[in-house]
Amino acid sequence: MMKPLIGLGAVVVVAGLWYAFRPEKLFIDETVNESLSAEGKAFLSGTFHSGAHETKGMATIFNLPGGKRLLRLTGFETSNGPDVQVYLVKAGDATDNDTVKDAGFVNLGAMKGNVGDQNYEVPSDVDLGAHRAVTIWCRRFGVNFGTAPLRPANS
To answer: Does the global pTM surpass 0.70?
Structure first.
């Protein structure tokens, strides 16, 4: 009678650990290749540097017609993981986890893929004078994968 309960308990524990850590995501890339759908003017841009995981590529914020703003990641590549988000951080850079947590941030949404070009809408009420870095953040484990400090674009 106890063996089936122990077996069931073991299955529940393994399933819970799998869900928490999502180990298959370490080996599976999710590639995204979105285009820039509207003509816009590059306003801010920066190059990613690695944090807890190797992260590379460019982050550019565009001013679009009609007053909309768009964050575009190009040549982007990082590790995959569970519950990875794209944040605008209220700091000039974020080289560690505490800066992201302490400075404050705006969540632009779940990362669409860990490889490729992708777009995220920037809400109109976000102060880009204060939110000066883009961070790829694993919400499940509180880890900064990588950050792109933003500077005025050269275009």
So the answer is: yes
CB-based contacts of 16, cutoff 8 Å, min separation 6: none
Q: Are 116 and 32 in contact (CB under 8 A)?
A: yes
The two three-digit tokens of residue 99, written as one number: 């800066």
DSSP one-letter string for 143-155: EEEEEEE-EE---
pLDDT tens profile 53-112 = 999 999 999 999 989 999 999 999 999 998 999 999 999 999 999 999 999 999 999 999
Cα-based distances in Å from 95 to 53, 65, 139: 12, 33, 16
Do the Cβ atoms of 135 and 94 come closer than 8 Å?
yes
Task: Give the dihedral sign, CA 108/110/115/121.
Answer: negative
In the chain, what are the domains?
31-152 (2.60.40.200)
Could you tell me if 20 and 140 are in contact, meaning their C-beta atoms sit under 8 angstroms apart? yes
CA angle 68, 147, 97 (to 5 degrees): 120
Query: Is the CB of residue 48 less than 8 Å from the CB of residue 148?
Result: yes
At CA 87, angle to CA 44 and CA 136, rounded to 5? 100
